[in-house]
Structure formats: structure tokens, C-alpha cells
Design brief:
Elements (H helix, E strand, L loop, with lengths): L4 E6 L5 H13 L3 E6 L9 H8 L13 H10 L2 E7 L1 H8 L6 H7 L7 E5 L3 H5 L1 H13 L2 E2 L3 E4 L5 E5 L3 H15 L8 E6 L4 E2 L5 E2 L6 H12 L3 E6 L11 E4 L3 H14 L4 E4 L6 E7 L4 E3 L14 E6 L7 H4 L6 E8 L4 H15 L3 E6 L12 E4 L4 E5 L2 H12 L2
Parallel strand pairs: 1-2, 1-3, 3-4, 4-5, 8-11, 8-13, 11-12, 13-17, 17-18
Antiparallel strand pairs: 6-7, 9-10, 14-15, 14-16, 18-19, 19-20
Helix pairs in contact: 1-2, 1-8, 3-5, 4-7, 9-13
């Protein structure tokens, strides 16, 4: 991969200063880097810095005398193109075919037989805006590799999504993409991820469920899929789905989940199972009122005029305890998840110890109800093996990276 050629584009975001570190790391590892910038990006990073790092002049003006066609030829020259950071303005221009500067004009000349990476960086509101999300989706559908953003404190003072993905992780992704492009990737493993919540029916329209959205599972699935792993995604109804290519299979309630999971484990060889699904501890047994007594989960709708309605619940079995024994691969690496309502880490560690013992999981990921944001985003994960706490990470993106580091060994 020595002297792989990187066309490194920079747009106007305060995160532009972080591109200097990434460019420096690329050059130090033998990459040939050419920078192309928007004029607004130069408010955040200087030409002298970029020229000093790359040993090449910074390209800005698409109408520079004698060099217009050579700029277009850059797309042919590059082995990989990356826009880092990618501002909301530039993302939305690219998705709508607007070419009013060199960065956006070169995108229209992109050859789709080589990788094009985008690393967004912006305020949370701008990142979540429907226009930006629609543009990112359109670019992804066209074949652009959209990197995730980190969550945390932003330059504007807000806390949330939109923070530039860690430059070291971007570097690793570039290396992986080029290895895959050159046919150097190892044979990747097969992963089963369970996600979301069960729905235990009360009647034909009502059900018992929980607050699991599948956000963490989808983030992990996207990361592993982007690394070339074969991912099967067993998910609940209305669970967030991965953006990348995965084998998505839907379940309904506890019984349906159990049957589907068992069938998958018995008939497929999975190297790892990442069990995030929030499976109900109880299912409906009987429903009683003064007027009638009937079993739950019927297809009809209970009359809203019924008085003194009583729902009897019965416990479900611990599916996680059976995964290893049912699995076709008896050496499957099992990640179990523990969602704790306790505010004490010491108390939660006791719960983790019990889960490790009765499930025989190789790893347990602990998270707390108190670390769930008002938007339903889970933060602050603790990764345990059978001996100790291995790592504490802030968000699901970092968790996905740590899990991939474990399973790729």
C-alpha cells in the first residue's frame, strides 16, 4: 500500500484543524496526499500548514490558468478520495449536484470504481436537519462511504451528535478500505446481532414492550458491515435498522424470537453473537375482569368498557443462557448486555458477575438507565470479561470499534 494516493478534501468546519493530524499520519505511513480545499476552510486551517505536511501546493481555484483540466485529472490520479471534515453546506451541495467550487466540481467527476469517503462534522441541529440527513442518505445510496460522527461536547457548546469521527479511527478505516480494494483483506467472520424489543400481546392491538430502540445494535452492525463482516441482524418491530448491507430478520414476541434465534444458531456457523435484544422477562398469561376471563395475545380487541381489568404475567426463560449450547459453533464468542437500573457501579458489577456466570458469556457490556439521554440515546458503556472491567467508552460508535477489536483476533 506504499504510496497509495489520497485526494484529501477539506470544507469549512471548525473541525478542519483535526485534518492536519490525519494528513500527517497518512504521510508518515507512506501515503501520497494532495489537498483540495474550499475557501471557507482556510478560515480554520492555513495553506502553509497543509503544504508543509504534504509537500504539495494546496488546490483551491478550479479556474486557475493552465490547470483546469489537471484538476479534473486528480480524480483519475487518486486511489481514494476523502472529504474531511465535511460541512453541512458542502454535503447538501454534493447531494444536489451543485458544483460551485473545486471540491464540489471534482465530486461530479468522481469515478465510482474507487472509494469516496465523507466524514461529517457540524452542529447537532445541522446534522439532524432533514435536509442533511436526506443528503447523506442520497450520497450513501450513490455509493459514497459515509463515516459516523461521534457524540460529545461540540465547539458551539452543545452536546450531541455531529462531532468529527476520531482521526485515528478514520485512518484505520482508510487503510481497511484500501486493503479491501486491493484484495488484501482477510476472510471476515460471520456475526449474529440481536436488537430491539419484544412485543408481548395483550390483545389484538395492545402489547407490553420496553424502551429499546436498537440504536446501539444498528451502530455496531453498521461498523462491522463496513469492515467486511457478514452480519445477520435479528431485530424487533420498529427497531432501528442498519444503513449498511446486513441480513435483516424480524421477530415479534418472546416465543417468536426464541424460535427464530434457535433456528439461526442451529443452522448457521456464527463466529460471534452480540446479544443486545431487550427480551421481555414476562409474557401475558391470563386477562381477567368482572365480565370475562380469557388468555392473552388474542387477535380481537378488548372492550374499553371492561372494568377492573387484571393482567396476569408469567416469567419467560433466560434465552442468553442457551445461546452457547444451541450454537452450531461451540466456540462462539458471546457478548451479553446488561441494562441496569441501579445508579451504583458496584451494585451493577454484581449483576454483571451473575450474568457472566449463568450465561457463560465471554463478555458483558453494562449500561445504565441514568446514562440514557432524553432522545433515547444510550451513552457510557462498560465492557467486562470474566476477570475484570476491560474498558469504559462514551458512545455506541466507540463501543462498536472496541467490539470489532475483540472479535477480529
Amino acid at each position: 500500500m506504499l504510496k497509495s494516493k489520497i485526494l484529501f478534501k477539506i470544507s469549512g468546519s471548525i473541525a478542519a484543524y483535526k485534518s492536519a493530524y490525519l494528513i500527517s499520519k497518512l504521510v508518515q505511513n507512506g501515503f501520497d496526499v494532495q489537498t483540495v480545499v474550499t475557501t471557507s476552510s482556510l478560515h480554520f486551517i492555513g495553506k502553509a500548514t497543509l503544504e508543509g505536511l504534504t509537500g504539495k501546493p494546496v488546490l483551491i481555484d478550479q479556474y486557475e490558468d493552465g490547470k483546469m483540466m489537471s484538476h479534473i485529472n486528480l480524480m483519475k490520479w487518486a486511489d481514494l478520495i476523502i472529504l474531511c471534515p465535511a460541512s453541512a453546506n458542502t454535503i447538501n451541495k454534493m447531494a444536489n449536484g451543485i458544483a460551485d467550487n473545486l471540491v464540489t466540481s471534482l465530486f461530479l467527476a468522481h469515478s465510482w470504481d474507487k472509494p469516496y469517503l465523507i466524514a461529517p462534522a457540524m452542529n447537532t441541529a445541522m446534522y439532524k436537519h432533514p435536509a442533511t440527513q436526506e443528503s447523506l442518505k442520497r450520497l450513501k445510496d450513490w455509493g459514497v462511504d459515509i463515516l459516523p460522527t461521534d457524540s460529545g461536547h461540540l465547539a458551539c457548546g452543545d452536546i450531541g451528535e455531529g462531532k468529527l469521527f476520531d482521526p485515528d479511527h478514520i485512518y484505520d478505516h482508510i487503510v481497511d478500505v484500501l486493503n479491501n480494494q486491493n484484495g488484501n483483506s482477510d476472510s471476515k467472520k460471520s456475526i449474529l446481532i440481536t436488537a430491539g424489543a419484544t412485543r408481548e400481546s395483550i390483545d389484538g392491538v395492545r402489547f407490553i414492550t420496553n424502551l429499546s430502540t436498537g440504536n446501539t445494535a444498528a451502530t455496531i452492525a453498521d461498523h462491522l458491515s463496513s469492515k467486511g463482516y457478514k452480519v445477520t441482524y435479528l431485530h424487533g418491530i420498529n427497531t432501528l435498522l442498519p444503513n449498511n448491507k446486513t441480513n435483516n430478520i424480524q421477530y415479534r414476541d418472546f416465543q417468536n424470537f426464541k424460535e427464530t434465534l434457535n433456528e439461526l444458531l442451529e443452522s448457521n456457523y456464527y463466529d460471534s453473537v452480540i446479544h443486545l435484544a431487550a427480551i421481555s422477562d414476562y409474557t401475558v398469561d391470563k386477562i381477567k375482569s368482572e365480565e370475562l376471563a380469557l388468555s392473552g395475545s388474542g387477535k380481537s380487541k378488548l372492550d374499553s368498557e371492561l372494568s377492573n381489568l387484571t393482567i396476569n404475567l408469567k416469567p419467560t426463560s433466560k434465552i442468553v443462557d442457551k445461546i452457547k449450547s444451541i450454537s452450531k459453533n461451540k466456540d462462539v464468542v458471546l457478548f451479553a448486555f446488561k441494562f441496569s437500573g441501579s445508579s451504583s457501579l458496584d451494585e451493577s458489577k454484581k449483576e454483571v458477575g451473575k450474568l457472566l456466570k449463568h450465561s457463560n458469556a465471554d463478555f458483558v457490556v453494562l449500561n445504565h438507565l441514568q446514562d440514557r439521554t432524553k432522545d433515547g440515546i444510550q451513552t457510557n458503556y462498560y465492557i467486562f470479561n470474566k476477570s475484570a472491567l476491560l474498558k469504559n467508552v462514551e458512545n455506541s460508535t466507540q463501543l462498536a470499534i472496541e467490539i470489532e477489536q475483540i472479535i477480529k483476533v
